[in-house]
Amino acid sequence: MDHSNIHEPDREARSPWSRYNDSESVEISPPSLPMNADITVPGSKSMTNRALLMAALAKGTSRLAGILQSDDSHWCMSALRELGVAVELEGDTAVVHGAVGSWPNRSGSLYVGSAGTVARFLPAALMAAASGTWRLRGSSRMSERPLAPLLDALAGQGAEIAYDGTRGCLPFTLRSSGLSGGEAVLPGAVSSQFISGLLLAAPYARKPLTIRIDGPVVQRDYVEMTIDMMKSFGVEPIVADEGRTIVVEPGIYSGRSLALEPDVSTCSYFWALAALTNGRVRIHGIHSNTRQPDIEILNVLERMGCTVTKSGDAIEVIGTERLRGGCTISMKTWSDQTLTIAALAPFADGPVTLTDAAHIRHHECDRLAAICQELRKLGIRVEEHPDGLTVHPGVPQPALLDPHDDHRMAMALSLIGAKVAGVRIADPGCVSKTCPDYFDRLRELGVAVVFEERPDAISAHGTE
Ligand SMILES: O=C(O)C1=C[C@@H](OP(=O)(O)O)[C@@H](O)[C@H](O)C1
Ligand SMILES: C=C(OP(=O)(O)O)C(=O)O
């Protein structure tokens, strides 16, 4: 199998929780029996990294139960430890001893991996301290992803930022003299994370901080999640002007005990598996009234002919013989699932058009270009649009697929392998950004999963 055209992953961004890194590819084949499973899913990435950061800024000790253990949360914890915050793990509970907004280590080098939630949340949090100088770096892709609007707002708050290379990008050195407060303007069209990042640090400004949001916000629910979680840590942002203005008064987070929700973005792959294989998957511990926007997948699966049952704290999806297509779906508020729906779409009975997702070209890869490229390798007819794509019904042919070092590309493409034989996915280790044991979980559901080792991994093991 020729691997020469596969994107070379940035292995430095893989945490100690990453798996499958000795594997060059994984072959996925359909289950021999209909899927019939009750499962649980690890904690939300978005909630884990928000909670860790607020707990680190808080007064007192926090116990965060059900945290995600993946690359993105690893780099968050590792940066906090580098800042001198005590973060201990007791199983999947993180115990964080808050530093009350004054980082014990006033200088150092911080690595954010490929995590948008660390790259966009940490710079503002550093400025909670009245002084300090830190160098920040990230993976090669994170160093290309947009940060300028946030960093410009921080410069307006008093940060001195010296860029190693491109202005507005990692790596850079940030010198803090505290957040001045007053007004900051942030755009919402490229990433909601700029707004969440400044909000999380805002209580530590010297004066009230008013964030004015310029234009519509992509994935606005993540901003609402930030506000909800700030309230649960004892700070009450005031939202005005139909959501365009958010005011945060000076304050201090209070350490607390918190049980985090399962990651709904990860749940979506398992519900999608049930949908596609005409099986049944029930996920425990999740409510449909969550703030996590990817819960919208349930409405779309229902529209495509699946049966969704919400009972107590479990949500079950039962699939269908043939998914219904012939629809246009806006992905604006739940864009992380664009790839999942695109992977289901070839099996629908009519074309599926996904729109309003131009900003995902700035995610772990240019996701619109990447999914079109990989679906075409399978012989599927696809049209790429500036803000989305149209996928036509077809029968996927055997192919080696490139996940473009993107966890969601790998997880979404694996769904196709669970329906038709002959799908191989290169670099299976990339799933560790949010779900390090994803392929083991697939196997437990009856999907056939066979790894192919990397030639250099074999030589590293000698003749074993
Ligand atoms: O704040 C968050 O936790 C997230 C916000 C979204 O990013 P953008 O708003 O940058 O698209 C989402 O895609 C990401 O997975 C998590
Ligand atoms: C866009 C994503 O991540 P990040 O938090 O790095 O933006 C994602 O997980 O799909």
TrEMBL record:
Keyword Amino-acid biosynthesis among UniProt keywords: yes
Gene Ontology cellular component terms for the protein in this record: cytoplasm
Alphabetical UniProt keywords: Amino-acid biosynthesis, Aromatic amino acid biosynthesis, Cytoplasm, Transferase
Listed NCBIfam families: aroA
UniProt-annotated catalytic positions: D336 (proton acceptor)
Function: Catalyzes the transfer of the enolpyruvyl moiety of phosphoenolpyruvate (PEP) to the 5-hydroxyl of shikimate-3-phosphate (S3P) to produce enolpyruvyl shikimate-3-phosphate and inorganic phosphate.
Annotated PANTHER family: AROM/DEHYDROQUINATE SYNTHASE (PTHR21090), PENTAFUNCTIONAL AROM POLYPEPTIDE (PTHR21090:SF5)
One example GO MF annotation: 3-phosphoshikimate 1-carboxyvinyltransferase activity
Domain of life: Bacteria
Residues annotated to bind 3-phosphoshikimate: K45, S46, R50, S191, S192, Q193, D336, H363
Region feature (Disordered): 1-35
Record Pfam families: EPSP_synthase
Catalytic activity: 3-phosphoshikimate + phosphoenolpyruvate = 5-O-(1-carboxyvinyl)-3-phosphoshikimate + phosphate
Gene giving rise to this polypeptide: aroA_2
Name of the molecule in the record: 3-phosphoshikimate 1-carboxyvinyltransferase
Subunit annotation: Monomer.
InterPro entries: Enolpyruvate_Tfrase_dom (IPR001986), EPSP_synthase (IPR006264), EPSP_synthase_CS (IPR023193)
Main location (coarse class): cytoplasm
Name of the top EC class for this enzyme: transferase
Biased composition, class Basic and acidic residues, residue ranges: 1-14
The family this protein is said to belong to: Belongs to the EPSP synthase family.
Places the protein is found: Cytoplasm
Residues the entry annotates as binding phosphoenolpyruvate: K45, G116, R145, Q193, R367, R408, K433
